[in-house]
Structure formats: C-alpha cells, structure tokens
Design goal:
With 346 residues, the chain is mainly β. The chain is built from no helices and 29 strands. It is globular, with a radius of gyration of 19 Å.
C-alpha cells in the first residue's frame, strides 16, 4: 500500500472537537456547506428551503447560546441568495472568491456574484435534479455538473452560450458527485462506479465499487480518491490502478439510505463524514481507525460505541461536511436545519 502523504507525522495533529458556532436560519435540511476561498473566513450553506446563506461563523454565537426567537436575524448571517425554485443540493466557490456555483432540484445551474447576491449565469439542459456542480479548468473557466439524469455536463463560463460544451452519458444511473483534477473529470454514480474522463485523450476509466456511490473527493496530490457508498463504507482508492488502499467503517457508522458527503482534512491526514443517524465520524487516513465520533444535534463528542443510537431519518441525517483549509476547523450540516462549526478549544 502506498497511501497519500507518506511523510505524514507519527503524532496525529490535534483535531478540533469543540463546537464554536451554530449557524441557524434554514427551515429545512442543509444539503450543502462550503468554506469561502482564500482565508476561508465565510461559510455558504444551501438547504431544502431553496435558499443559500452566507455566514461569518466567527460572528455567530457559540452553539450553547444561539438565538431562540424565530423572528431574530441569525447571528453571523451576512447575505441571503434566492433564485432556486427547489432544494439546493450543492455549492462550490471559485478560487477568486467572487463567484460561486449552486445546483439543485430545479435542474438549473446557477452562477452567483457573491457581492451583489445576483445570478450572473443560469445554465439549463439537465433533465433531472443537479446533484453537484464544481469549478474547474484554467482560472475556473468551466463548471462540471452531475445529475439525476445520469449525465455529466461541462459548461463554459466565458462563453455566451447557455448550452453545455460537452455531455458525458456513460453512467447507467444518477450521477451523485463530480470532481475536477487537472484535465480530468471524475464522477460517482448510483450504478456503483467511478468514472474518470481524461479530456485530453477522450478516454474514460471506470472503477467498480459495487455499491451505490454518493460522494467523491480527490487528495491534494491527485493520486488517490475518497469514495462514499451506501454500504456504510468509505474507500480510499488508488487512481492509477484502482486498488483499494483503505476502507473506513465503524459499528455506529450508518450510510445505507441517504446521500451523505465525506471529505479529507488536516492536509489529507483524516477522513470526515456525516451519516444517516445524526453522527459525524473521523478516521485516521493511514491506520483506518475511527478517531472521533460526534453527535451533531447534541453538539458533543461521543466516546465509545455502546451509547450511540441508530435512529435514521431525514431529520437525523448529517448530509454534508466541510473542512477548513486554513485552520483547524470544520462544519457539519444537519437535517435539523443547522450548521455546526467545530474548532479548537480556546
């Protein structure tokens, strides 16, 4: 096995386990959470209530004293973005930090101006909900999207055309997640496969996972990929030969019914994932052992396995997690409509 970061330090860096902010205001499941680019000072959230919200988490109260009045403006809320007619399923911020792309149940791809809170492009062409949209290419010149219609579409932001410049239709079921790395586009599907498209050669490489795939992340080096699937397992795969490098599981980790996202954190040293049952799990990427378990709704770390409940449902799900690239901080988005921000104890 040749895992990522072979120069990884023997001592695991301290992991942020303290809830430092609670971002409130959504009236439905939060499906998407993303840090801003650059200093990552802000967090964008997207919900089944059809809205996107921009927060400054460091101006939100600690989770224990969040506002309780229904008509109060949520603390830390900077802006609100409304254009989606259905639930918001994904958000991705460009590297210049002035635009973001959002997708959702209305089959439309929205490109937003962060400052004006207005859409500057709207791409249509998918025949089903758009599960994911991400920037890619030189200077974030393209957007890659994956849809329930089983296709991946590539859109040119700089073109005046509202039609995709390319459609990849190899998937046999819903495309759940996409990622762009250099000139390659990767896509996961409910058909249990990960497809990697090399746009330079036109070749498509297929890795068979064998279970419906829900989430995809590529390591910083680009040589491995992290894939979540509906058998309560997250897999680290070698992108060159498709070898399984490590599988991440836990007796309390449940992901069999709902789409949840996993991600990498702390310079690709840990794997972070939500679950169907309201828990967030953290694994050591090299050893594979579960390092931490968190209860999202109760805002606490849970030690051991015996005390964990296995209730599952849309209100219990932690559907999205995001790790800050500039500091030891991460966020979990829940079916309770709240986003919790976790950091180091001050």
């Amino acid at each position: 096995m040749n895992p990522p970061n072979t120069d990884y330090q023997v001592t695991m860096p301290a992991f942020p386990t303290t809830p430092i902010a609670k971002l409130t205001g959504h009236n439905g499941i939060v499906h998407a959470v993303a840090y801003s680019s650059g200093s990552a000072s802000y967090i964008l959230t997207g919900s089944s209530d059809r809205t996107i919200r921009l927060y400054n988490p460091h101006k939100a109260p600690p989770s224990s004293i969040a506002p309780t009045t229904s008509n109060a403006r949520p603390a830390g809320l900077v802006n609100k973005y409304t254009a989606h007619g259905y639930e918001v399923l994904s958000i991705d911020v460009n590297s210049d930090n002035d635009k973001f792309v959002s997708t959702g149940g209305d089959k439309t791809v929205f490109v937003w101006d962060v400052q004006t809170a207005q859409t500057i492009r709207r791409f249509t062409g998918h025949a089903g909900r758009v599960n994911r949209g991400v920037f890619g290419g030189d200077s974030d010149s393209i957007i890659a999207t994956g849809s329930f219609d089983g296709t991946v579409k590539i859109w040119d932001i700089k073109s005046n055309s509202y039609k995709p410049i390319m459609t990849l239709d190899d998937a046999k079921d819903s495309v759940t997640d996409v990622a762009v790395h250099d000139a390659e586009i990767l896509a996961t599907s409910v058909d249990g496969r990960v497809r990697s498209y090399d746009l330079r050669t036109g070749m498509c490489h297929v890795d068979v996972i064998g279970h419906p795939c829900t989430s995809l992340a590529v390591t910083t080096k680009g040589t491995e990929m992290l894939v979540s699937s509906l058998d309560s397992t997250i897999r680290l795969m070698d992108r060159d030969n498709g070898q399984l490098l490590k599988a991440y599981q836990d007796d309390a980790f449940v992901n069999k019914d709902l789409r949840v996202r996993s991600t990498l954190g702390l310079n690709d040293s840990v794997v972070l994932s939500g679950s169907d049952n309201g828990m967030v799990f953290v694994w050591d990427i090299l050893g594979g052992e579960c390092l931490h378990r968190f209860k999202h709704s109760e805002m606490r770390e849970v030690q051991g396995k015996g005390t964990l409940s296995a209730q599952t449902g849309k209100k219990d799900v932690v559907s999205a997690v995001a790790f800050c690239k500039t500091r030891r901080e991460w966020a979990s988005a829940g079916g309770d409509g709240n986003v919790l921000v976790w950091g180091m104890e001050s």
